[in-house]
Amino acid sequence: MKKIAVVEDEPLMREELALMLRKAGYEVEEIREFDRVADQLEMLSPDLAVLDLNLPGVSGFQICREIKGRSSFPVLVLTSRDQMKDELHALELGADEYLTKPCRRERLLARVSNVLKRYEGRQNLLEGPGFLLDRQTYTVYVHNHSAVLPKNQGKLLETFLSQGDRTVTKEALCLAVWGTTEFIDENALQVNLTRLKKTMAGLGMTQKIIPVRGMGYRLAEGTEENQKL
């Protein structure tokens, strides 16, 4: 059963949406607290998020940006904002569909079904800027080509992608590669990061591994300074 997260602050609208989706055969998670929505969604890992833009605190635009920066599930925006500029902005941030309220039940369910079908088979794919990583085989798809990464490099890239633009600690990287943080020589981590950096450059990827002093590393676009390990 596909799981859908509903992010809507108006209780009656949220309950109506949840009931409609449950009757259509979906499992539904309702977001009722609007602090750290992106974190809640990441923990739920739904097959689809239905997202309102007019939320208390952080806007739906910011939530959409955060979701798309670190997760691979699709986002369907359902909002009362019917301006073209809002729709274009949401799509630029990575939204997969944009519907305005009020919306007919049949139309909403059809769009939900279409988005889910488009994402079938992509559960194992993590999306980065201009490339995809298959987390099962560690295959990178970039520039209409594909390459299988060595296991350690694949684990490192998977860890960076799962954290979006956030800094990843050295401990987290060691845990991802070796399953432990004990008895790991930091030079071993440096060697693997250097190899990944060379592999990414050889594939023509623009992202760089950026050291963050005293904290760890993060994946960023190549226009940033201090790109050397």
Structure description:
- The protein is of the alpha/beta class.
- The protein is 41% helix and 23% strand.
- The strands form three sheets. The protein has a five-stranded parallel sheet with strand order 2-1-3-4-5, sandwiched between helices. Strands 6-7-8-9 form a four-stranded antiparallel sheet.
- A hairpin with a 2-residue loop joins strand 6 and strand 7 (131-134).
- Helix 6 (151-162) crosses helix 7 and helix 6 (151-162) packs across helix 8.
- Residues 3-116 form the Response regulatory domain.
- Pfam families: Response_reg, Trans_reg_C.
Largest sheet: 5 strands, parallel
The strands making up the biggest β-sheet line up spatially as: 2-1-3-4-5
- Head-to-tail CA distance between termini: 44 Å
Shape: elongated
Approximate helicity band? 40-55%
Percent of sequence in beta strands: 15-25%
Q: How many individual helices?
A: 8
**Helix-strand string:** EHEHEHEHEHEEEEHEHHEE
Oligomer, anyone? single chain
Mean pLDDT: 89
If you compute it from the alpha carbons, what radius of gyration comes out, rounded to the nearest whole angstrom?
A: 19 Å
In total, the number of strands is 12
> Which blocks of ≥5 consecutive residues have pLDDT under 50?
224-229
Specify the structural class.
Answer: alpha/beta
Protein name: Stage 0 sporulation protein A homolog
Keywords: DNA-binding, Phosphoprotein, Transcription, Transcription regulation, Two-component regulatory system
Domain Response regulatory: 3-116
GO biological process, one term: regulation of DNA-templated transcription
